[in-house]
């Protein structure tokens, strides 16, 4: 994605790839969300004033979902170990 021309980030194809990445991160996080991946990407798109800002905001969003996933995985492991030792 980083090799695309500066204005390519506004193209429907580029944005759809970003939506797919957000969707994948949401799916892996495994939690319910109030907004769809399309809505989240559109919010970021409207907020961003440049390609760099757009990609930075998308990256932060994806990292947020990865953090949710890590917390839920570590929480499940803690629950299991707690159940073993009542």
From TrEMBL:
Residues 6-70 form the Mediator of RNA polymerase II transcription subunit 15 N-terminal domain. One of its GO terms (cellular component) is nucleoplasm. The lineage of its organism: Eukaryota, Metazoa, Chordata, Craniata, Vertebrata. Component of the Mediator complex, a coactivator involved in the regulated transcription of nearly all RNA polymerase II-dependent genes. Mediator functions as a bridge to convey information from gene-specific regulatory proteins to the basal RNA polymerase II transcription machinery. Mediator is recruited to promoters by direct interactions with regulatory proteins and serves as a scaffold for the assembly of a functional preinitiation complex with RNA polymerase II and the general transcription factors. Required for cholesterol-dependent gene regulation. Keywords: Activator, Nucleus, Transcription, Transcription regulation. Component of the Mediator complex. It comes from the Eukaryota. Its main location: nucleus. The keyword Ribosomal protein does not apply. This is Mediator of RNA polymerase II transcription subunit 15. One of its GO terms (biological process) is regulation of DNA-templated transcription. It is found in: Nucleus. Belongs to the Mediator complex subunit 15 family. GO terms for molecular function: transcription coregulator activity. The keyword Magnesium does not apply.
């Amino acid at each position: 994605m980083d090799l695309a021309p500066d204005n390519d980030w506004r193209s429907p194809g580029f944005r759809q790839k970003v939506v797919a990445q957000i969707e994948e991160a949401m799916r892996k996080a495994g939690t319910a969300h109030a907004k769809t991946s399309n809505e989240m990407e559109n919010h970021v798109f409207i907020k961003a004033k440049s390609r760099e800002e757009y990609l930075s905001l998308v990256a932060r969003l994806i990292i947020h979902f990865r953090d949710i996933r890590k917390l839920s995985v570590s929480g499940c492991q803690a629950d299991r170990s707690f159940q073993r030792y009542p």
